[in-house]
Please model this.
Amino acid sequence: MAKVRAARHGEARALTALVMRSKAYWGYDAEFLAGCAPELALRDGELAARRVVVAENPGGRVLGLASLELPEPGGDARGASAPGGAAPGGAAPGGVVARLGLLFVEPSVIGRGIGRLLYRDALRRAVALGVRRLLIDSDPYAAGFYRAMGAVASAGGPAGLVRFEVAPVPLAGWARAWTGGVPAVHVGNVAEFNAQFADASLDRAYRTAHDYACLAAFYSPRPAALVLPRPVPPGWIRLVGRQLDWGPGVEVHDGLAEHAPGLSEAVLARPALAARVAGRGLPLVPWGRTRPYGRLAGLEWRPRELRYESKSAAHALFAGILARGGHPGITLPAQWRAATRRAAARLLAERARAGRATVLKSEYGVGGSGTTVLTSERVRAAGGARAVLRGLPRGPLLVEEYVPDPAHGPRDLTYDGFVTGDGRPYEVGAAVMEVAEGAYRGATVGPGVVPAALAGPLRAFGAAVGRELAGSGYRGWFDVDFVADGAGRLAPTEVNLRLTGPSAAFMVAARLDELRGAGHLVRIVDRVELGARLPEAPLDQLCAELAAACAAAGAVFLPAIVTGAFDPAPWLGVMVAARDAAGLEAAEALVRAGARAAGADFGGFGGFGDRADFTGAGGRQSSKSKGERGARSR
Model:
């Protein structure tokens, strides 16, 4: 694997020759190359000043180089950049500005990740130097590379070159605080968490919950290990690891609990694995806390910490916060706990006769399971309130007034935060969710996603909930879900004391901002239906081609929930990222079109660009016993 080091005195002549070989890769004639040579030449005396670094392989062969150039006092930074093409240009005014002055790769290794390695190293160095604006004047042939790396085209720049800009930023402060700034072990105990509440959404095989355990890949910005109930395709790990720059050595322990909810218990039953997972001093991050997970992590189990997973308990929490005042933009819908089904039917019938819409909720349930929205028309069409209730899951029911839809703007929003082990609450951000018929379908995070008029009240109330949770002893991730009403107010509806789909999107946004510059919007789409049950090789091919096609448009594609592709009714959970709403919509449309094409003929996925080469990315170490890997006979 290549590594980056500072260029050394005495290397300038050899590096200049590499630059010229790389420039010639694009087919320029000798006269043009001769004209470029003076500007592209490197001199030993300027290597340090221009912050030149090289990428070299384990044998010491130099494979590429890059320079990060800040203006001298009273002058301009020199140079312009492109892997295989560069020219000078003046520094743009305003802010701390630097230039990616040179970025060239040996022709024999172009397309093998060396340019990506050097580019991301330049962004990291720019952050360390306090750079807030990085300019790139690219050879037209290299423009696609920078677009795929996340740089944004802008006006200006020298004639004949393509100007790009990027805003280098460090990993978000909340993301560093979440795991202490180090890689973490991610435990995908989704079914285990849900089972402790007798969640009615769990099927007997726990298939759907185990599918959602794939989100363990995104429990923090960079994992050290993934612990998963079902076997996952190695190609998925390589692709996600490459997109998020995990580097080598991410361990995958999968196939541990395919037909039972107890992932933590399955790990505890394997002492060597339990020691590997929990005994290295790395943070452990679960989907949610359970008694078995507490044994695995060596944490005291306090079930009362999770009491606000109850929707009625959360409603009481909201009421207490509002009673103290200070949240004029928040309203709370009335809620009644029906002691019996007959009582629930009576309440529902009364509201239906009055023409009022009603929300029926189970005490527990994820992703909208156990939540039903009923208008008076729907109650009549079903044959009355008792007929409606016969079709709902058994167990206690909450009857809640329906909050009227807003005239415009988003309806379903969420606030995400967490409480650290020492009791300090952190805000992560706000997101807009897609909800249909009470069921969660996905979410979008990023700058400007939540309108400013809603963001202020939402964040203030979410922070108040976080303080209450910290005071109650809860430690870990949480979110507060809201609906917007017709008067522009927000109504809190529930608390989730666990990770969620939006939390995965926040993690990816933080990582992409660090790798590609600030400003990513990320959308997680809960289910993209596939028309065919895909074997691993065609699934890998589809995902690779979708990733390449999105990259060509400056977007990012991540298969988020991949094991659903092997289910009887196959589907994928996906994430897409872009710099603006239009790019996000285009990326999602591309992914959905690719899924439809895969269903029509999973043997070939034409029309999505050249297939990317994902070998060698995202290292994998895993136990090879059948008990830990599971059989692979799809």
